[in-house]
Design a protein that fits this description.
The protein is 33% helix and 28% strand. It has six helices and eleven strands. The longest helix is centred in the N-terminal third of the chain and has 14 residues. The two termini are 15 Å apart.
Length: 222
C-alpha cells in the first residue's frame, strides 16, 4: 500500500512527464490518498492535463483540482471573440447538433446549455471546445432528452463493457432507475472508471449516469 508521500512523489513525477505542463507551476498535496492540485497555470488545456495526469497514478482515490487559469495578455480574448469561436467549432463538429445548444461566455467562463438526444453529444460538445484559446473554464449544463429505456439496456451496457479492452466487466454492476444508470463496483484505474462511464452514456435513453465505481489500489486489484 502506498503512503501519501509516495503518491505525492509519483504525481509530481507524472506531471513532470506530461509534455504540456510546467510541473513547477503546480502544487501537489496528498491526504488519505486524495490529491489536491493548486497553483496558477496559463491555459485551460493545461488545467485539464494536470488533472488527467494526476488521475493516471495508481493508489490515487480522488483528485481535488484548485488550479486557477491566468491567461497571459497576448492570449486573452474578449467574450465575444470566444463565443464566436465556440459557435464556429460546434457548427463544424459532425457529432454535435449545434442548433440545439446555447453558449454563454462571461469573463472567459463558457457555459454550454440546451438539450440533446444522446449522452455522447453532450460530452463531445465540451471536448470539442476545450482547446480554444482564451477559455478559462467550461461548464457543461447540457441535458439529455429522456427516451424510453429498453428492458435490455443493462445487457447492452454490459456487452459494451466486454468489448472494451480497458474494462473488466465482471467487477462492475449496472442498475437502471428510469433514465438513470448507476455504476457500482471496483475498477483498476481512473481511466477504466472514465471509460465505463462513457460506455454507459452511449446507451440510448440514458440522461444521467451516477458513477460510484471505486478505484482500487494497485496492490489489491483483482
Amino acid at each position: 500500500m502506498k503512503t501519501d508521500f509516495e503518491i505525492q512523489k509519483d504525481v509530481i513525477e507524472q506531471l513532470r512527464w506530461e509534455p504540456a505542463l510546467a510541473a513547477a507551476e503546480i502544487g501537489v498535496s496528498v491526504k488519505d490518498g486524495i490529491v489536491t492540485l493548486s497553483g496558477t497555470i496559463d491555459s485551460y488545456p493545461k488545467k485539464l492535463a494536470a488533472e488527467k495526469g494526476a488521475r493516471k497514478v495508481s493508489a490515487v482515490k480522488a483528485v481535488i483540482e484548485n488550479l486557477e487559469v491566468h491567461l497571459p495578455t497576448n492570449k486573452q480574448k474578449s467574450d465575444q471573440q470566444i463565443a464566436d469561436q465556440v459557435l464556429h467549432v460546434l457548427r463544424w463538429h459532425t457529432a454535435v447538433a449545434d442548433e440545439k445548444l446555447k453558449v454563454t461566455v462571461e469573463h472567459g467562463f463558457v457555459t454550454l446549455s440546451g438539450q440533446v438526444d444522446w449522452g455522447y453529444e453532450r460530452n463531445m460538445a465540451k471536448t470539442a471546445i476545450e482547446n480554444i484559446e482564451g477559455i478559462r473554464l467550461v461548464v457543461n449544463e447540457i441535458t439529455v432528452r429522456p427516451h424510453p429505456v429498453y428492458s435490455d439496456v443493462t445487457e447492452k451496457i454490459g456487452a459494451a463493457f466486454q468489448r472494451h479492452a480497458s474494462i473488466d466487466s465482471s467487477k462492475i454492476k449496472v442498475f437502471i432507475t428510469g433514465n438513470r444508470v448507476t455504476l457500482e463496483g471496483r475498477v483498476r484505474s481512473w481511466a477504466e472508471r472514465d471509460d465505463a462511464e462513457e460506455a454507459a452514456w452511449s446507451a440510448r435513453g440514458v440522461n444521467q449516469v451516477v458513477n460510484n465505481l471505486i478505484v482500487e489500489e494497485e496492490e489489491f486489484a483483482f
